[in-house]
Structures are given as C-alpha cells and as structure tokens.
Write a structure and sequence with these properties.
By secondary structure, this protein is mainly beta. It folds into three domains: 2-63 and 287-321, Immunoglobulin-like, CATH 2.60.40.1930; 72-275, Jelly Rolls; 331-700, Rossmann fold, CATH 3.40.50.880. It is built from eight helices and 46 strands. The strands form ten sheets. It has a nine-stranded mixed sheet with strand order 32-30-33-35-46-45-43-40-41, sandwiched between helices. Strands 13-12-11-10-18-7-24-23 form an eight-stranded antiparallel sheet, with no helix packed on it. The longest helix is centred in the C-terminal third of the chain and has 15 residues, at 683-697. It is globular, with a radius of gyration of 27 Å. The two termini are 46 Å apart.
C-alpha cells in the first residue's frame, strides 16, 4: 500500500503543506508534478504531467498507518470521584445489539461505564465486568431515560422508556474513588504513537447527561449550547467536553414535540448529539514531510507524487493559486473541491447495487482500496453503520477517488477531479494564462477572490455550494465579468463548513436526487443554522443566474450531442459558433461517446431562467436510461423517461447581463470530455475557445475589475 493526503486541498505559492503517508515500503520518494491531463484513454492525450524542477525529489521514511475512527466526547479535565456516584442520561441507541459493548458514559480512570451489552441490554460495567443490567434488550431508535446510583453498598440501574413503567436492577457495591476523564460514546482511549483510538464505541444519540458526586451536582452538560462548535459547555462544574471526530449536532432530543423544525427557534428541543462508530473528521496520521511550495510557482493543478519500489505511484492533488500580491491572469478555473469532498470515498458499489444503465458496473483499484479501508470514512452518498445518513465529510483523510487517473465505476471514464483536468489540458493547449482557485477559496474569500479575473470557469460538476459562493458568482457577473458553467447538476445542494473545522462540510438531504433523508426536525445545519436540502427549495435555483438547472440524469453507451437552435444563427449569438459549420455540436467524446450525459440541466422559466436567455443548442434525444429528477415529478407514469419526456435534456445557453457581464452554460457533466478528442481539433474545443476569447476581451471595458 502507498497512499497519502495533505493538510489542505489548496494553497498559495510560497506556502507549505504537510504530507501524511501510509506505506508498506519504508522508503518513499516525494516530489511535485504539475498535472495537465488525467484520462489515460488512448483516444485522448493520455496521462500528462510535468515534473517541477524547483522542488527536487527527496526520500522520506514511511510506515503503514492506522486511522482512529468513531466520534466521542472527552472532558477537558479530570473529575475527582467520591464515595457515591449519581448519573443520569437519555439514550437513543441505533444499533443496540451489534455484538459488541457500546459505552454511553465512561469513566476510564476508575474503569466504570454505562453501556449497552453485546446483546443490547443496558448495564453498568466495572473493571471490565458487567455488574448489573436490564433483563431485556432495548429497542433501536427509541428514547430511554437512564439513571445510575453507585456506592460501596450497592449499584442501582433504573431505565425508563416513554409511556412504560420504569425498570430497576440492583447489583453489588462499587468503590470508585480516584480521578478520571469523562467520556461519552466511548469506554476508553488507546493511545498509540500520538494517535487516540476510541474503544467500545457507541451508536446513537445521547442527551442531557448529568453527574452527581456524594449527593452534590458535579456536572451538567448543555448539548443545545454552542451548537456550531466542537465544544459542549458544562454549566455546573466546568468539565467542558471536546467533541472528537465530529458527531452530528442539531439533533432532536427526547423533548422534541414535532412543532419545531429549526433548532434555533427552541434549542432546548435539540439537546442531543448523534454519535457514530464510523464518524471521521481527521485521520490524524503523523506528518511524514512538509512540502514548501516555491513563491514563484505558477498557479495550477499540481500533485505531490509518492513513489516506492513495487507500488503504484500515488498522486495527491494540490491546487496552487498565486502568491499574495503576485500578478494574476485574466482567467480563473475554479476546481470543484466541495463536490470532490461530497463524493470522497463513496461506498455505493459495496453490497447490493442496482445497475443504473446498460453499462455494466466496473470497479477499480480506487473502490477496492475504499472497501478494504472502511476506517477512511464515508461520503455524503453513504449511510453510517447504523443506517443514518452521512451529514459530514472531511478532507483530512486519504481520498482514493480524488486522483488524476480516477475512472468512475458507472461509465469507465473520468468524473469530478479527473474530469476537470480536461479543461486544464485545454487551457494549457490554448496557451492562455489562467489561475486555479478552489471552491474553498470561493467560500472563504467570497467578497474578493474573483475581483482580479474577467473570465471565471467552473468545473464539470459543481454540485455542492454555499450561499457565499453563489454570492461571489453573482457579484462577478453583476460587475461585468464572464462566467462559464461547463458542467451539469450544478449549485444543487446547500453545503456549509464549520468555522472550527473548515475541512469538514455539512449537508442535510431531504429532497432532490439523494440516497438518504435527514430525519424530521433535523434538516437545519448545525454549522450555520441554515436550512439544508436543495437550493431550489430555498428560492435560489441555479436557473436564476446560470439560465439552467438540474433536470435529469442517466448513463448509456452513446450520449447525444447538441443541435443548434435557429436562434443561435442570429448576430448576437452567432459569434459563439464562429468557425463551426456543423449543426450538431459534440456528438463525440471520451465519456460515453458524446457530450450530453450523466447529470444534465435545462432551461426552466418557472424556476427563474431569465426571459432574455438565448438557448443556443439543446441535446438530441436521450435514451430510456435518462429520467427526470424527483423534484420535477408530481405524478408517476411510464412515460417519465427521456424517450417520451423532452424535459429530460441539456440546454446550452447564453445569458447577457446589464453592465456587460455574461453567463455561458452547457448543462452536462460530460461536456468537456469531448475537448481532447482529435487533440482538441473539434467543434466543442472551437466553441469553448470562442467563448473564452469573447468573455476575456470584455475585460478592457469592465469597471469593477481589480488588478
């Protein structure tokens, strides 16, 4: 095995990044390459990169690394126990009988815990021995109020379920004198080489934990406070908790009454935290090396390359933007890092999987690695082990499906990061200067990051977006800038980072094209307090700015091209097709042999497409494998698929805005996969070159542009 990850997905020239490596070979060579093209399809340019001579290769020591997975809470200081201990807590277990002990509250310093037995009964453990428990297992996804009283004379466990009589069990006395940290959702922590591994991990919600010592209230934690942080205050004794590996907050508690759905309206009803044994916010591998990026390194898409004897090289992506104060280009390519994280390490092909097209599913080394290393965490497309949806996804872990030569299992061609390298190749071939930004840059510096640029180009699949990022694009166009949306399924999911965990993104799914639903009452984000779901339901459909929005999806062996509209031949639009004599654009490509495919967008005036939008071209008819998105389906029939439903299509549009700004959109994830065909000598490449040149030339008259 040879794989790594970085401390950041992007940086400025002159900054440094930490490199974390896991390798079965003890000596690993590290260097830096500039990525040009990732697809190794022999019909295209192949896998292309340039070695960066300014960063000489060096050898580093390496070893295989384990990853501490599972969320828990730990007190910032130890508590001193006395003769008696009183404890109360509300529990909502989700995997009560999973064959292993699951600790809800632990005091590892005195080896005491309240836990679920492997059979799903609630019990008290001391010195690894079950001293008292309920007779029957608890039910999954039900609230239980648990009270424990422990003294040298006896142990008393009382469990009460809503609407049911309390059940009590008495056991032997226990002496608990000593000091101990307080753990929630873990029994103890094994520390190995600076990493901390939680044991006896718990799955489910925990609410309202309270500790009393010798009859006096010692700690009372307020899970409903400081909701957007990884910290829980103790409003009694000062034993504040740190949350490790990002358990899910803004969860309904035992007092939720179904009338409140926004946790900010009544936080007291959201006094629960959902812990999972497969949560992961940071793989916490030790730093293997630090890479100093040269201050004069040109902006671009790079990779830190790892090489070891007998192992395949690993290319860890790094997006580099210009150093502060350095000159910028007129063109910016925004790499879709939010979407890369949303899909990071998705496990959709594991277990039973329904084939979604005529193309057989074919997994590769990337999927094999993820399946073998479940401890590397999951994506927003997966379920936790307890069946709840994965709301948080992190950048601080190995991400095998974010590699330049990644091929998607659904159609055996690049997708997301590897597909976005098509435009890197094309811009490089054109010889036009361009800078590379990330969507993380777009969010963090939304008010200024696009100011130096005239033409801004998106990735092929910019699906996950924050409101700040959309604001940045709107300001850019309003100020006279050109915006090229060269993908499909864009600007779809409301996505937010945590202020104290900027490498973790939050998504709450409850509508749209999805693989899970957030439970009722739990659709508002903990990180920002805003409503999750799709932007269209928030009144901010991408149609308003980009002219098009998500309308359908599918895969097949032959994706169609786009047929020009009569409107495209008029003078105000014909410049887009200068030098092109074909009526059909892009009936070829390195992905599914065409340009309109995967997830596709269309015009919809009801959802905000501007009335003056010019429809330049629309996709030829799709096959029956293409269907509309759920939000467009109000009644069910056997004529929903694209063979009968012309609303399932791609529209290529031009939207001119007052002040000289303009938006060009193509409405298909796979569109740019046609650019490298015939080494870029084709009508798709010519069309994109026309738009880039036109939009960039407008910068001479743009008043809002800053240099």
């Amino acid at each position: 095995m040879l794989i790594g990850y970085l401390s950041a997905l992007g940086c400025r020239a002159g900054e440094s990044v930490d490199v974390m490596v896991s390798s079965s070979i003890e000596r690993v060579t590290l260097d830096l390459v500039r990525l040009i093209h990732g697809d190794d399809n022999p019909v295209g340019p192949g896998f292309l990169y340039e070695e960066v001579a300014e960063v000489p290769a060096r050898e580093i020591a390496a070893q295989e690394r384990d990853t501490p997975i599972g969320s828990y809470a730990r007190s910032q200081q130890e508590i001193t126990l006395g003769a008696t201990l009183g404890l109360s807590v509300d529990l909502w277990p989700t995997l009560p009988a999973n064959g292993a002990r699951q600790t809800a509250v632990g005091l590892p310093g005195v080896d005491f815990s309240v836990a679920l037995t492997p059979e799903g009964r609630l019990g008290l453990y001391h010195r690894q021995r079950l001293i008292v428990s309920t007779e029957r297992p608890v039910l999954g996804r039900h609230w239980y109020h648990v009270e424990a009283e422990v003294s040298p004379q006896r142990s008393l466990l009382t469990v009460r379920q809503a609407g049911q009589p309390a059940r009590a069990a008495i056991g032997p006395g226990v002496v608990l004198r000593g000091d101990s940290p307080i753990l929630l959702a873990a029994g103890h922590i094994d520390t190995q080489g600076g990493q901390h591994f939680p044991r006896a991990r718990y799955n489910g919600k925990i609410a309202r934990p309270v500790l009393a010592i010798d009859g006096a209230l010692a700690a009372q934690w307020a899970f409903e406070q400081q909701m957007s942080t990884q910290r829980v205050p103790d409003n009694r004794g000062g034993y504040h908790l740190d949350l490790i590996n990002a358990p899910t907050r803004a969860m309904t508690g035992p007092g939720w009454n179904n009338a409140v759905h926004d946790w900010k309206q009544d936080p007291a009803q959201y006094d629960a935290i959902h812990f999972h044994d497969d949560d992961l916010a940071d793989a916490c591998w030790p730093v293997s090396a630090r890479m100093q990026v040269p201050p004069d390194l040109p902006s671009g898409v790079y990779a830190l390359r790892l090489k070891a004897a007998g192992e395949a090289d690993d290319y860890i992506p790094l997006m580099v933007r210009p150093a502060p104060g350095a000159p910028t280009a007129d063109i910016a390519l925004v790499m879709a890092t939010y979407t890369y994280l949303a899909y990071a390490n998705e496990h959709l092909t594991e277990g039973e999987f329904e084939q979604g097209s005529e193309i057989p599913v074919q997994t590769g080394d990337w999927e094999d690695l993820v399946a073998q290393h479940q401890e590397w965490g999951k994506s927003h497309y997966d379920l936790h082990n307890d069946g709840s949806g994965v709301a948080y996804s992190s950048a601080l872990r190995p991400i095998p499906n974010m590699r330049p030569n990644y091929r998607f299992w659904g159609f055996h061609a690049p997708r997301r990061f590897s597909a976005d390298l098509y435009m890197v190749w094309f811009l490089t071939k054109l010889g036009v200067p361009f800078d590379v930004l990330t969507e993380h840059d777009l969010h963090q510096e939304s008010g200024s990051v696009l100011a130096p640029y005239q033409t801004v180009i998106t990735g092929s699949h910019p699906e996950y977006y924050s409101g700040d990022m959309l604001d940045a694009y709107e300001r850019h166009v309003a100020g006279g800038g050109g915006l090229m949306y060269l993908g499909g399924d864009g600007f779809y999911w409301v996505t937010t980072p945590f202020a104290d965990l900027p490498h973790v993104l939050e998504v709450r799914k409850s509508e749209g094209l999805r693989h899970w639903d957030a439970d009722p009452g739990e659709r508002y984000h903990a990180s920002t307090g805003e409503l999750g779901g799709i932007w269209r339901s928030r009144g901010r459909s991408p149609h308003r700015l980009f002219g098009i929005g998500m309308g359908g999806h599918g895969w097949d062996n032959k994706a169609p091209g786009y047929r020009r509209s009569p409107r495209s031949y008029q003078a105000d639009a014909a410049w887009v097709f200068e030098g092109i004599t074909d009526d059909v654009i892009g009936d070829f490509g390195l992905i599914m042999n065409g340009t309109s495919g995967d997830e596709i967008d269309r015009v919809d005036y009801h959802h905000g497409t501007p009335a003056h939008t010019i429809i330049l071209a629309s996709s030829e008819q799709h096959s029956e494998w293409y269907v509309p998105v759920p939000e467009d389906v109000t009644t069910v029939s056997n004529t929903l698929n694209a063979r009968y439903n012309r609303d399932v299509r791609s529209d290529m549009v031009l939207v001119e805005h007052p002040g000289g700004g303009a938006v060009f959109s193509v409405g298909s994830i796979i569109f740019t996969g046609a650019v490298p065909v015939n080494q870029g000598e084709n009508n798709v490449a010519r069309l994109l070159g026309n738009v880039i040149n036109n939009f960039t030339a407008r910068g001479e008259n743009r008043s809002g542009k800053q240099r």
